Amino acid sequence: MAKKLNPIKAQRELIKRNMLLFSPLEFRRIFCVTKSAANFFINYHLKTGLFAKLRNGLYTLADYPANHYLIANRLYEPSYISFDTALSFYGVIPETIYTITSATTKTTREFEAENVKFVYHRIKKKTYTGYKPIKYLDSTILIAEPEKALADFLYFVVLKKRQLYYERLDFKKVKKNKLLFYAELFKKPKIIELIDKLYVEQRNPKRIY
Fold first, then answer.
1. Three-state DSSP class for residue 176
2. Which residues contact 104 (CB under 8 A, 6 or more apart)?
3. pLDDT at residue 168 in the model
4. Cα 3 to Cα 162: distance, rounded to the nearest angstrom
5. Is 112 exposed, middle or buried (0-12, 13-18, 19+ CB in 10 A)?
6. 112 in the same domain as 47
7. In this predicted model, what pLDDT tens digit does every residue of 149-163 receive, in sequence order?
8. Residue 23: which domain range?
9. pTM summary value
10. What's the pLDDT band for 203 if we cut at 50, 70, 90?
11. Do residues 155 and 189 lie in contact, with contact meaning Cβ atoms separated by under 8 Å?
12. Do 24 and 96 sit in the same domain of this protein?
């Protein structure tokens, strides 16, 4: 079976289907081959340089890598991009963030792939909401709404796991009512207190935490 798969045609088909990231199961379904045939082909062409391994069970085309936000979604599931990565994406903070940080209901983890660090922070299932699919670089990614990204971030500020300089925040890009709605999901009154303080003191820059 594996011998019938042509690497050039396989590459073209994956690009045509926009399957720049794929698992062995997805590969099997696309090319209608057995499990052993798919595994043989993938492992063989990891050595030839056609494919690159991101982690066990997740591969990409070496010459056509997927965008890093899509990789973040697929590298550790379920997850959505959040925290300062999403805040930077929306322009709520001015900095460019190079570590891609996501929220997950699974154990907190870190990975490195494509020379990028991917960090996943665990949040409770009842707070795992407030994200949406959007089109980004010809792919669909899952990313928190600006308000949920900020609520997620402030939750970790209150836990003293992150620091916040409130003068960095552009509140014009955040709806306060929606921010409070998401913040209340965490059942941490200190988050609400911090949000109120941020809005009151946003014109008088100083470090809150």
1. helix
2. 76, 77, 78, 79, 120, 121, 122, 123, 128
3. 78
4. 52
5. exposed
6. no
7. 999 999 999 999 998
8. 2-61
9. 0.91
10. low
11. no
12. no
Q: Which helix (H) or strand (E) holds 8?
A: helix 7-16
Largest distance between two CA atoms of the chain: 68
In order, the DSSP letters of 116-158 are EEEEEEE--GGG---EEEEEETTEEEEEE-HHHHHHHHHHHHH
pLDDT at 208: 44
Find out whether the peptide bond into 78 is cis, omega within 30 degrees of 0: yes
Looking at the structure, do residues 81 and 49 belong to the same domain, yes or no?
no
Give, for 59, the enclosing helix (H) or strand (E).
strand 58-61
Tally the residues of the chain.
209
Q: Which amino acid is residue 90, in one-letter code?
A: Y
Q: Which residues contact 49 (CB under 8 A, 6 or more apart)?
A: 62
Identify the sign of the CA torsion 137, 141, 145, 151.
negative
Residues 146 and 92: their CA atoms lie apart, in Å, by 8
CA distances from 26 to 41, 113, 166 (A): 13, 20, 44
Tokens 């707070």 belong to residue = 127
Q: Quote the CA–CA distance of 142 and 132 in Å, as a whole number.
A: 5
